[in-house]
């Protein structure tokens, strides 16, 4: 047990291999920094406590016995909670990295990751952290409270959403973050725009010189 917790304190990673892409799962038990290059897209702080997130999914800002327990690390303000039979779905711009803080992970929690093409990937219980933590339901243990990261290689189908479900009370999470990257067509438009800007600047310089 001591050996497990010593390992859990370190950022760990393992690979889940769905049919369409290699999904890398990283988990750090306890407190950890938000992944470099990511932006928080939902921290639930702008939503009033009690706000609905979907079927049997609610925003809490404090622990409620038998219903919700704030993730033990890196969570302040509001946090998302999916209760028995509940569903919370979030969609976002195509990303190669999706990260969030989870709390008191249980065996009846599940997470479905959505991709830009191909089938989704469904993880439940300790699969959510790929066995790098424990779905014990503990509200304080680093084995079930920490930060989980999901990443895919550039060129593989991007991660575009996630569905949180729970067969019991509850699945708690906070600080959902991504590293949304422009689509190829967007990159082309951006490069064309930069090129046009360069031409305009060169023209301006030539005009300025001709009048000097």
Account of the protein in words:
Pfam families: PEP-CTERM. Residues 1-21 form the signal peptide. This is Ice-binding protein C-terminal domain-containing protein. The structure is a single chain. With 212 residues, the protein is of the alpha+beta class. It has 2 domains: 2-181, Sandwich (Jelly Rolls), CATH 2.60.120; 182-212. Helices cover 16% and strands 36% of the residues. It is built from 2 helices and 13 strands; from the N terminus they run H-E-E-E-E-E-E-E-E-E-E-E-E-E-H. It has helices at 2-8, 184-210, and strands spanning 12-16, 23-29, 39-42, 52-54, 57-60, 79-82, 86-95, 97-103, 109-115, 121-124, 146-151, 159-166, 171-178. Strand 4 (52-54) and strand 5 form a beta hairpin. The protein is globular. The chain starts with a helix and ends with a helix. The model is unreliable at 1-11, 185-192 and 196-212 (pLDDT under 50).
Q: Just name the CATH architecture of the largest domain.
A: Sandwich
Strand runs, count: 13
Number of domains: 2
Q: Which descriptor suits the 3D outline? A: globular
CATH class of the largest domain: Mainly Beta
Taking all Cα atoms into account, the compactness measure Rg is 21 Å
Question: In DSSP terms, counting alpha (H) and pi (I) runs of 4 or more, how many helices?
Answer: 2
Pattern of helices and strands: HEEEEEEEEEEEEEH
Query: Helix coverage percent of residues?
Result: 10-25%
């Amino acid at each position: 047990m001591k050996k497990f917790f010593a390992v859990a304190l370190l950022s760990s990673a393992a690979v889940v291999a769905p049919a369409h892409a290699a999904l890398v799962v990283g988990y750090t038990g306890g407190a950890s920094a938000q992944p470099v290059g990511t932006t928080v897209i939902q921290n639930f702080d702008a939503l009033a406590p009690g706000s609905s997130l979907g079927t049997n999914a609610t925003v809490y800002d404090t622990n409620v016995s038998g219903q919700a327990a704030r993730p033990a690390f890196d969570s302040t303000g509001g946090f998302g909670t999916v209760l028995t039979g509940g569903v919370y779905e979030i969609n976002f711009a195509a990303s190669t990295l999706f990260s969030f803080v989870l709390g008191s992970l249980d065996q009846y929690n599940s997470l479905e990751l959505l991709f830009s093409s191909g089938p989704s990937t469904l993880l439940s219980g300790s699969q959510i952290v790929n066995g790098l933590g424990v779905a014990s339901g503990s509200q304080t243990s680093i084995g079930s409270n920490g930060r989980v990261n999901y990443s895919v290689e550039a060129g593989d189908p991007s991660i575009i959403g996630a569905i949180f479900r729970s067969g019991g009370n509850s699945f708690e999470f906070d600080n959902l973050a991504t590293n949304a990257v422009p689509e190829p067509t967007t990159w082309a438009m951006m490069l064309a725009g930069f090129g046009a800007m360069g031409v305009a600047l060169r023209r301006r310089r030539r005009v300025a010189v001709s009048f000097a």
